[in-house]
Amino acid sequence: MSSKHRGIYASTEGGGVQLAAGNDRWQLHDDYVHLAPDARGPLVRFEAELKPFVDSTQRGALVIIDMQNDFCSPGGWTDSSGLDFKRCREAIPGVKRAIEAARKHGMWVVWVYWHNRPDLRNLGAPTLYAFKHETEQAGIGENLANGPVLTRGSWGASMVDELKPLMDEDDVYIEKVRMSGFYGTHLDQVLRTQGINTLFFSGVNIDQCVSTTMEDACFRDYNAVLLKDACATSSPDYCRQAIEFNAKNCWGFAMTTADFANPRPHRAD
User: Fold this and answer.
1) What's 56-264's CATH class?
2) With a threshold of 0.85, does the pTM exceed it?
3) Does residue 66 have an active-site annotation?
């Protein structure tokens, strides 16, 4: 590695500032952020907040989180809990658009979802309490009219019907047992072995499983991007607003599915 790449905050040839050192360094410019200054092949510019960024689509993957019946369908867990499942369904059109764009870009599509053991031995008390605050409230693994909540093999744990036709056998499928898709799973190993650096996040709930997975991605030094109109939540609006704020100010970037689908070719200065 050239010694010039070891200087954090060093000046770059294009008038920018280097962030970090080594192969995964970024270059911060006045009007964009370059995420892959050493990448070979075509580069594109994605319009995003707080700044546009330049990257290679070959380094990216679309991550779809928890688009399952228990969150998004009538008779599911969200619905049975008295929350508005229709608000979660608002993510479905955006997820469809994101999948179409990811396939066009040649990116991996990664499906992350709750698949708990029927005996619940993988869940501790704090996680169980997070979703069962009253004795009469149905918690993870307890039975509803359509079967046990978020349990492997159940109706509630299945993907919503609208997305099933878009699932491909070559996609990556990650079963999780916590809000974050990284905790206790092989998601990190799969991404590292496939050379994936940039993750585009979609799904539900934006303020819970999407946000915790995006935070964990940032903590692991992935380039994290929130697809705002491909996410939803049954929580109050201020929860979504806080996540969108933190996504672009703390964890990475935020953009729409239209911007994800239509990057512009990047030409070096």
Assistant:
1) alpha beta
2) yes
3) yes
